[in-house]
From TrEMBL:
It comes from Schaedlerella arabinosiphila. GO terms for biological process: xylan catabolic process. This is Beta-xylosidase. The record marks D146 as: Important for catalytic activity, responsible for pKa modulation of the active site Glu and correct orientation of both the proton donor and substrate. It comes from the Bacteria. InterPro entries: Glyco_hydro_43, Glyco_hydro_beta-prop_sf, Glycosyl_Hydrlase_43_Enz.
Length: 483
């Protein structure tokens, strides 16, 4: 199965792959992530699937199929609902095989699966263990979670792990969270399992250590990922704010890290004029991802949230500015991996909105669905499935805004919105949130999907489009057309 996705989310809208770690193998980008279910009751309830794209065409994603099933792990707890397959990472070993490191709820251990191909059928291999054969996690260590695996240029192998909730409470399984940021284990590359050194804390501040340091406001929570660019180590992590990926740098993979900044926030928090969750440009929740470099360009992978809760997450990515060793926070866009503004002529699904909020603003989502009233949201019809690309924005009621960035509108003169619902009012279209409208479209109640058209006067090579509804009732925003 292939799909051409020149926008965000970059996978089909029925696919819910969060926590994606991108890796390049033989000219293709492979993503290794968790697998949520649409409207899932908890995180990570699906088996691992993999998608890939050629480095020369990041819109051409191919479904590689299910690469690993939860039941293949001998320690898999009987109850799946509270013990899903969490965020994995992959590395190629010195034997040429591909090793998938992952955490499964209810085990306390880091498991490893192996395959001869980057996206073939992985088989269970073992558990990361100490020299005495006791698995890591079984010696009363801090909670092991979200393993990041990294093979350095000299062949040394490092695994990073950790989890640190606010206040460091004891977890339900009796484990203690990491109090001092992420931990590192050096593993023996001859078997890819045995700990040679560690664990050691690498110096990324935890909640108690962050005040008065550059990490203040951005201490470590989870989502460990290590990358190396131009000889410098970049440790990527989700901060205690949860909605953002941050990074720290060092000239050593196990110590001496200095805070670098925010890479991306799934609510654009930290971007100009966006100061906190209450003023976020999209619904916020946890995020996880990493960075790849392709032909001198850098891309940050992360995920967004849908369906009014945290457990229907979708893979997104942005080009990110990198200069003189520093990354600058990426802006959420609808373009994603496209690398340029979208065409001013064509049909676009509404679910590629990068900004979505209601009259009441946005919410930091939980595992319980937030109320519909006053909040538009991404959703789909029917149950979780492996086909049927019909996601849309539901509940566009009075004051709701859906924003899309960016389009080349130099030759665009008409716009049509395709909606259904009981709405009666006006949709105002702007190129910036507080500017005068460049189009006004009157909408009326329609049971079936119907198009409403207006002239559009917004010439420009790189323009945003913000759709704001004012009126009675609400509508489902299915798609729009530019001509």
């Amino acid at each position: 199965m292939k799909t051409k996705q020149a926008f965000n989310p970059y996978l089909p809208s029925y696919e819910y792959v969060p926590d994606a770690e991108p890796h390049i193998v033989d000219g293709r980008v492979y993503i290794y992530g968790s697998h949520d279910l649409f409207n899932g009751l908890n995180f990570c309830l699906g088996d691992y699937v993999c998608w890939s794209a050629p480095v020369g065409d990041l819109s051409n994603w191919r479904y590689e199929g299910c690469i690993y099933k939860r039941e293949q792990d001998p320690a898999a707890p009987r109850i799946r609902l509270t013990n899903g397959l969490a965020a994995p990472d992959m590395v190629q070993g010195p034997d040429g095989k591909y090793y998938l490191y992952y955490f499964m709820g209810g085990t306390k251990m880091i498991s490893v699966a192996v395959c001869d191909e980057p996206a073939g059928k992985y088989e269970f291999y073992g558990y990361v263990k100490y020299e005495d054969e006791v698995p890591v996690g079984k010696k009363n260590e801090p909670f092991q979670f979200d393993p990041g695996i990294f093979m350095d240029d000299d062949g040394r192998l490092y695994m990073y792990s950790g989890f640190a909730l606010a206040g460091n409470p004891i977890l339900l399984d009796g484990s203690k969270p990491t109090e001092h940021g992420p931990m590192c284990f050096e593993l023996d590359p001859s078997d890819m399992l045995t700990v040679k050194k560690g664990p050691v804390y690498i110096g990324i501040a935890g909640e108690k250590e962050a005040p008065g340091t550059p990490y203040e406001g951005h201490p470590f929570l989870e989502a460990s990922s290590m990358r190396k660019f131009n000889g410098t180590y970049y440790f990527i992590y989700s901060s205690l704010n949860s909605h953002e990926l941050c990074y720290a740098t060092s000239d050593n993979p196990t110590s001496g890290f200095s805070y670098g900044g925010i890479l991306v926030s799934n609510g654009d928090i930290g971007r100009p004029g966006v100061t906190d969750v209450n003023h976020a440009k999209n619904y916020t929740g946890n995020t996880h991802g990493s960075i790849i470099e392709i032909n001198g360009e850098y891309y940050i992978f992360y995920h967004r949230h849908s369906n009014r809760k945290q457990s229907s997450r979708q893979a997104c990515a942005e080009k990110i500015r990198f200069e003189d060793g520093k990354f600058y926070q990426a802006e959420l866009t609808s373009c994603g991996l496209n690398g340029k503004p979208l065409s001013g002529k064509g049909h676009y699904p509404s679910y590629i909105a990068c900004n979505l909020y209601g009259k009441k603003g946005t919410r930091f989502l939980s595992m319980i669905k937030h109320p519909k009233r006053g909040y538009p949201y991404f959703t789909q019809d029917g149950k979780d499935r492996e086909s049927g690309d019909d996601q849309y924005i539901a509940n566009m009621d009075d004051g709701a805004v859906a924003g899309f960035k960016y389009f080349d509108l130099r030759e665009t003169s008409k716009i049509r919105i395709n909606i259904r619902g009981n709405a009666s009012g006006m949709v105002y279209i702007r190129t910036a949130e507080n500017q005068e409208p460049v189009a006004k479209i009157e909408v009326k109640p329609t049971k079936d999907v119907h198009g409403f058209v207006s002239e559009l006067k917004a010439p420009g090579e790189k323009q945003a489009l913000f759709f704001k509804y004012e009126g009675r009732g609400s509508f489902d925003f299915i798609s729009f057309d530019l001509a």
